[in-house]
Automatic annotation (TrEMBL):
Species name: Paeniroseomonas aquatica
UniProt cross-references to InterPro entries, sorted A to Z: ABC_transp_permease (IPR001851), LivM-like (IPR043428)
The protein, known as: Branched-chain amino acid ABC transporter permease
UniProt topology in membrane: Multi-pass membrane protein
Top-level taxon of the source organism: Bacteria
Length: 312
């Protein structure tokens, strides 16, 4: 329980948010967007923190999931129980197709290959004239759930995002604690030794890449419903950079750090943008200072405080 109290506290606060004066207006919408980005950041953490693969094209999987919603919406298929699996499957297939090449590399080469694939996906989305091209596509409405428009209710959508985020974190923990996860982490630390004991890192990394892609596709489906609009910017490398920064800001040592990083990133960005029109001049240095001085990221702050208290 010593390590579990922080994520439990965060999820408890998110669950209580609608009853703490945030149930009306745009604040609950912002929290939903933060949790969706937390879901996407969690999927990226499985690669960065779990497999040691730093991807700069992860937003492509988010965008593929979002454009799956667009394609089905254009075909008048709006049932979330159909749309969500299709979005996850589409993103996972994209991940397998691109990851078959990418996971055979590492370091800077992996970063550049994922960036290239991400930009290819971005320009492909921009060329889809039938889905709005550069101008994007406005959905006819949010997806239905079991034939009813539950997702249009802010409260229902909030708890749906919260439940899926919690499931992703728990699922990620279970995956990393399994035999598969132990091999994946061992390959991150010393791939040559893993090969020496009879395991090939590439298949394990490819499966992790596909799982991360599927989770990111689910986040894309939720983001498309949250905004009711999808554009090629969903796949841009800048969004991939944001996701990577969320993971680093939260801390690479723990899975829930990705959630903390996403929440801090989105809420700080939103707060500063309402405070000044030059908010980026404040936002950038604050993030850089956080990364430089928060050892272990936001997830490591309680440990730093505890050490300071013990030292007197």
């Amino acid at each position: 329980m010593g390590r579990a109290w922080l994520p439990l506290l965060v999820f408890a606060l998110l669950a209580a948010a609608p009853f703490a004066g945030l149930g009306e207006g745009y604040l609950l919408t912002i929290l939903a967007r933060a949790m969706i980005m937390g879901l996407a950041a969690t999927s990226l953490w499985l690669l960065v923190g779990g497999a040691g693969l730093v991807s700069l094209g992860h937003a492509a999987m988010l965008g593929v999931g979002a454009y799956a919603v667009v394609a089905l919406d254009d075909a008048r298929v709006t049932e979330a129980l159909v749309v969500a699996p299709v979005a996850m499957a589409a993103a996972a297939v994209f991940a397998v197709a691109t990851g078959a090449v990418a996971v055979r590399t590492s370091g800077v080469h992996f970063i550049m290959i994922t960036l290239a694939f991400g930009q290819m996906a971005f320009f492909t989305a921009a060329s889809l004239a039938g889905y709005g091209g550069d101008d994007g596509y406005t959905l006819y409405g949010r997806n239905t759930l079991a034939g009813r428009r539950w997702l249009e209710d802010r409260l229902v959508f909030h708890y749906l995002c919260l439940g899926l985020l919690a499931a992703a974190v728990l699922g990620g923990r279970a995956l990393l604690a399994s035999r598969f996860g132990r091999v994946l982490r061992a390959a991150r630390e010393n791939p040559e030794r893993v090969r020496a004991v009879g395991f090939s890192p590439a298949p394990y990394r490819l499966v992790a890449y596909a799982v991360a892609g599927g989770v990111a596709g689910l986040a894309g489906m939720l983001l498309a419903n949250a905004t009711e609009f999808v554009a090629p910017s969903f796949l841009a490398w800048q969004r991939s950079g944001d996701l990577l920064f969320m993971v680093i800001l939260g801390g690479l040592g723990s899975l829930h750090g990705a959630v903390l990083g996403a929440l801090a990133f989105v809420l700080l960005e939103e707060g500063l943008s309402h405070w000044t029109q030059h908010w980026r001049l404040v936002f950038g240095p604050l993030l850089v200072l956080a990364v430089l001085h928060l050892r272990g990221g936001l997830a490591g702050v309680p440990g730093q405080i505890a050490r300071m208290v013990r030292r007197g």
